[in-house]
Amino acid sequence: MVDHVWRLGGDLPVRRLGLGTGGLVGPGYWGPRGSRAEARALLRTAVERGVTLVDTADNYGPDLAEELIAEALHPYGDRLVVATKGGVVRTGPDRWHVAGRPEQLRAACEASLRRLRLEAIGLYQLHRFDPAVPMAEQLGALAELRAEGKIRHIGLDTVTVQELREALALVPVAAVQNPFNILERSSADVLRLCEERGIAFLPYYPLGSGALAREGAAAVSAVAAEHGAGPGQIALAWLLHHSPVLCPTPGTGSPVHLAENLDAATIHLTPRERAVLDALAP
User: Fold this and answer.
1) CA–CA separation, 56 and 66 (whole Å)
2) Beta bridge mates, 157
3) Strand duo 5-8 + 12-15: pairing
4) H or E segment to which residue 161 belongs
5) What pLDDT shows up at residue 214?
6) In which residue ranges of the chain is pLDDT below 70?
7) Are 97 and 91 in contact (CB under 8 A)?
8) What is the C-alpha separation between 233 and 265, in angstroms, rounded?
9) N or C terminus of the chain: which is more exposed, having fewer CB within 10 Å?
């Protein structure tokens, strides 16, 4: 049986299949995609369908995704966990730079608290390590914010297994966000370490960012046909079956795609189907 609940940091229960908010903003994570009313409605529908983990970032928009979350879902209640990120400053569509000095991270976190209307952020993720700032200083800033009660748990985005080991020697890490999906498994070593240490792994591009239509399409489609499902639903179901620490948060701006994504949690893959899908990538 697949356990559909994970406890972030050991104490914060979330449903493993959540919602990412990159699909609520424009191309290149810049500006709006549709109307604010449509975005708010999609967020509310997700929570009504049982989503308890909403993943965002201060540079989505920038600022816009966090504002929409607050407009749609505040007050949040006890079950909903909003995860956001800081440490990257977006200057245009697909244009950004890292900003990991301690004072920058503190300012970013406090700005997210204001936009989200939160006293404490459930999961605050360092969006990238800044190569110009010692890791200890960057994580030290997050540890201070945690000690002050402004964040509950620390996460990391886009790390190597060595960086994760070094980070764990400095602070508790509750979650990692790296690319991982049915066709792209270059972070398998990071996933193994997360499994060993009880760290959630939030795979980004969980649907393969269009690759399902190009690679492995026949095998995925064949499994999908057995379940009366779509290939994307099978890709999400595979993640939920592959490891208990995988917590995919696919993003979308479409109510239809949202429903399809969330329905993936009801799909039970047989051992034979899992073996076929496991063989699609090294």
Assistant:
1) 7
2) 177
3) antiparallel
4) helix 161-168
5) 73
6) 213
7) yes
8) 8
9) N
Alpha-carbon distance 165 to 160, whole Å?
Answer: 9
**Is residue 60 flagged as an active site residue?**
yes
Those residues with Cβ within 8 angstroms of residue 244's Cβ, 6 or more apart along the chain or in another chain: 2, 3, 6, 195
- The dihedral region occupied by 31, where left means phi > 0, alpha psi between -120 and 50, and beta the remainder, is left
**Separation CA 154–CA 135 (nearest Å):** 14
Q: Tokens in use for 222?
A: 């064949």
Q: What is the pLDDT of residue 269?
A: 98
Tokens of 241: 């079956």
Per annotation, catalytic residue among 29, 60, 124, 204 = 60
**Buried-state track 167-194, b at ≥16 Cβ within 10 A, e below 16:** beeebebbbbbbebbbbbbebeebbebb
- Separation between Cα atoms, residue 151 and residue 9, nearest integer Å: 12
| DSSP code of residue 82 | E
- In angstroms and rounded to an integer, the radius of gyration of the C-alpha atoms of the chain is 18
C-alpha 177: how far from chain center: 6
C-alpha torsion 9→13→237→127, nearest 10: -40
Residue 203 structure tokens? 């795979």
Rounded to 10 degrees, what is the CA torsion of 56, 58, 63, 66? Answer: 40
Which of the four CATH numbers 3.20.20.100, 3.30.70.890, 3.10.310.30, 3.30.70.260 does domain 5-207+244-252 have? 3.20.20.100
| Entry field: residues in the chain | 282
Instruction: Tell me what pLDDT residue 213 has.
Output: 66
- CB 259 within 8 Å of CB 19: no
User: Among 3, 31, 28, 29, which Cα is nearest to 16's?
Assistant: 3
Residue 219 sits at φ, ψ, to 5 deg, of: -65, -45
At 221, which amino acid appears? S
